[in-house]
Write a structure and sequence with these properties.
Its EC number is 2.1.4.2. By secondary structure, the chain is of the alpha/beta class. 21% of the residues lie in helices and 22% in strands.
Length: 375
């Protein structure tokens, strides 16, 4: 087994160490029109359902402090309570839990091309991909998340000193012209050439990828993502194969499909319906357990819901038998038991507001597993 403190090739190997996101100092835009283009494109699938997603009109000068507000006190306290209970559960099961640095306060951030606000490291899966003993920081899709991984760097520095490899993918300029709107607009978009002489830039999140040993399945919906898939394949080389699947979501795939063990997929009923034939041929032969549970929490009309009602499909395998699931997902619990799994029900309130379930808010750093081929 690899001596590095980082070792993870799949989503289901026996879990030994994991990072769980922080909760403090999160924020939401006061009004949808305050968000910038990168925000609207990233959360398109959910914002468009709330009729708040004008990606063609004027985009403003970037998020400012007066444009955002903290999560409501009750919601923040309940989320913190549930995350801390989740951490205690994992530690009780013998898993080492690490945490990113807490965001002390929300501050203005800027590059030479744009300005925004700092963001807390809650959904830590999004911008870091673990492949074996390597940490790969992916090129951001949201301007406000550009420096988010700084909150994880003390951990990554420690892992690097312990023998892990640490790579940062090329960082985008993130001009307005850098973003491909094809997925949002439903029609091809001519490649724009921005002021810097660039066309569409490479931008993708690690949470667009699912790991199956020597094979990685990556959801691609834009030219930004497609460049990312090309870079990831070149970077990983001949030991790994990156399989592209098209338009299973605006960005992240772990709310649509999750491998639970070799030969078994957990799938979102709405996302996978009629599309299983678009998966890699090897995956089409796997058994599929369907998630029909929805998060029916009622919020006021003024709330921006950043994840869909199918967030319950976002589960975390601890090994080939045990799976952490939302405690309210009664159909999922019964179905998993029927298929020989041991579901571990855990409460995680306000996942739609915080844009993440159990897989989103965690980053498995070490699983007890060698590199194998499952396709």
């Amino acid at each position: 087994m690899n001596a590095s403190p980082v070792n993870s090739y799949t989503e289901w190997g026996p879990l030994r160490e994991i990072i769980v996101g922080e909760v403090d100092n999160g924020w939401l835009p006061r009004r949808p029109e305050h968000t910038d283009l990168s925000y609207k494109l990233f959360y398109n699938d959910n914002l468009k359902q709330q009729h708040h997603n004008d990606v063609d009109g004027p985009q403003g000068e970037g998020l400012r402090l007066e444009h955002v507000e903290p999560y409501a006190t009750r919601e923040a306290e309940e989320r913190r309570e549930d995350v801390e209970a989740f951490v205690a559960l994992l530690e009780g099961l013998g898993v080492t839990v690490r945490r990113p640095r807490r965001l002390d306060e929300v501050r203005p951030i800027a590059t030479s091309a744009w300005s925004s606000l700092s963001y807390f490291a809650h959904n830590v899966r999004d911008q870091s991909l673990i492949v074996g003993d390597e940490i790969i920081e992916t090129p951001p899709l949201c301007r406000h998340r550009y420096f988010e991984n700084d909150l994880l760097k003390p951990l990554y520095h420690e892992y690097f000193k312990g023998g892990a490899r640490w790579t940062v993918a090329p960082r985008p300029l993130m001009l307005d012209e850098s973003f491909d709107k094809t997925y949002v607009k439903g029609a091809p978009q001519p490649e724009a050439i921005g002021a810097a002489g660039l066309g569409f830039e490479m931008m993708f999140d690690a949470a667009q990828c699912l790991r199956f040993g020597t094979d990685i399945v990556m959801n691609v919906s834009t030219e930004n993502h497609r460049l990312g898939a090309r870079w990831l394949q070149r970077h990983l080389g001949d030991r790994f194969t990156v399989h592209v699947i098209e338009n299973f979501a605006d960005n992240h795939v772990d709310g649509s499909i999750m491998p639970l063990r070799p030969g078994v997929l957990f799938v979102n009923a709405r996302k996978i319906h009629g599309r299983a034939h678009q998966l890699p041929r090897a995956l089409q032969k796997w058994d599929m357990i369907t998630c029909y549970d929805t998060d029916d929490t009622v919020y006021g009309e003024d709330k921006l819901l950043l994840a869909s009602e199918y967030i319950s499909a976002n589960v975390l395998p601890l090994d080939e038998e045990r799976v952490v699931v939302d405690g309210h997902s009664t159909k999922t619990i019964r179905t998993l038991e029927k298929h020989g799994f041991t579901p571990i029900p855990v409460r995680l309130r306000h996942s739609r507001l915080y844009a993440g379930g159990f897989h989103c808010i965690t980053l498995d750093v070490r699983r007890d597993e060698p590199l194998e081929t499952y396709f």
